[in-house]
Write a structure and sequence with these properties.
Alpha-Beta Plaits, Aminopeptidase
Length: 471
Amino acid sequence: MTVDVEQRVDAYIDEVWPQVIEDIKALVAHASVADESKAAPGTPFGAEVRAALDCGLAIADRLGYRTGDDEGYLGWADIPGADERQVATIAHVDVVPAGPGWTGDPFTVRERDGWLLGRGVIDDKGPAVLSLYAGAFLVHEGITPRYTFRALLGCDEEVGMSDVHHYLERHAQPAFLFTPDAEFPVCNAEKGLFGATFVSAPIEDGRILSWSGAEVTNAIPGESICELAVDVAELPAPAAHADRITIEAFAPGRTRITAHGIGGHASLPAGSINAVGLIVAYLRQLEGVLAPEEERFIALLERVHADTAGEAMGVASANEAFGPLTIIASVIDIADGRIRQAVDSRYPSSITADEMADTLGALAAAYGATLEVDSTKVPFSVDASHPAVQALLDVYTHVTGNEAKPFSMGGGTYARNFACAVSFGPEDAALEMPDWVGPMHGADEGASEAQLRQALKIYILALLRIMELDL
C-alpha cells in the first residue's frame, strides 16, 4: 500500500469514527436473540432480530450501499464493481441471551476507559458495523472496485446458521469471503462441531425439582440454580468452592442451591468455571438424599464435568492441523421425569462424530442413561497458500507489525458454509482486558475501541488488496 492510500484511510477513519460508535450503540440496543418460535412472514427469527437487521441495513443505506434481504433470513449491502463476481464479508446481528452477572443494561452500550461494554460489541455487532464502514471507504473515495463488494448481515449465527443455508440455496457463492467473527490474524481451519444431550433414565420419587444452567448450548454456564425437595437442615456445607455456592431454604422442606462460576464461549473453555459442574460436585457429597437414578446420573455428570479436553469421557483427541478437542456441558434441565444435560464439542480431524457418538453413547449406557446426538458438522479448512489468505496475512502484519500465521480454532463461524472463506479478526488473543471487561457470550462483554479502530483499518486495506487479485 502506498503512503497516500494509508493516509486517506487514516483520515477516513478519523472522520467517521464518532458515527461508527453511535451505529454500534444503535445495533446493540436490539435484544436480537434468534427464536424461530416467534417467526412471522419476513421475520423468521423474531421481531427483535428483524429490527436489528433493519437497523444494519439502514446504516448501509446511509453509507451509500444498495441493500436488500432474503425474506428476513439475511440482508446484504452491495457496492457494484466492474465484475459481478463478489468479494464479500459476513457478520451477524443476532446475539446469545444476555444471561446473568451484568453490571449494567446488556443492550445499552457503556463506554469506560476506552472500552465498549454491551451484548454484541465484539460478537458480532461491532464487527458488523466495521464491515459496513470498510466497504463504504470505496464509496467515500469514489472507487469502483474490480469485484462487487457485498456485506452480508446474518440473523441466525448463534443458533443454527439456517439463515446462510437459506441464502446459499438462492444466491451464488462469492469468489472470496471473510467473516469478522474470530481472532486475528487469519483462521483458515475450524474444528468439527458435535452437539449431544445425555438423558437420564426415568426417575421415581426424585428430589431434584428443577435445575438451570446455560440458556444456549454453545455457552459455558456462569450461573446454575438447582432446587431440591429436601429440608436445608439435612444438607452439609460445600466441601469445595464454598465461596461460589449458596444454599438456602425457599419454602418448607425446599432448598435452593445457587452456584456462581465463570461463563464463556464453548470453543474457549480455558479460564472458565462451569457453574453446573460446581453443583454436580456438591450433589456428589450427599449420601442417601437423592433418588437412586438421580445419584446414578449425577455420577455420570461427574465424568462429563471432570475436564474440558474429553479425557474423563474417553474422547480426547488432537492433531497438528486443528489442535485439541474441547467439550463442555451447557444447558441442563428436567423434563418428563428425566434430567437432560447438553454438551458441545469442537473436535479435530483426528476423530469423527461417529466415533464420539459411539464412545459417549457407551459411557451413558454404563450409567443407565442415553445419548441423543443433536447436531454435527465436519472440520473445515481453506488452503493457507490461497492468494486472498496471503493478502490478509500481509495486511495484518503491515498494520500491526506482528508475525502472521494462519491458525485453526474451535469456534464455528459462517466461513465453513462457503466454498472459499476464512475468519479474520477483530479479536486479539494477546489483548489484556481489565477485570471488569467480560468475554464474548459472557457478562459485561467488552471490546477495546482502539482494537476496533485498528481492525477497521485492516479491513479497508485488506479489501483494497483483494480487489487487486485474480480470483
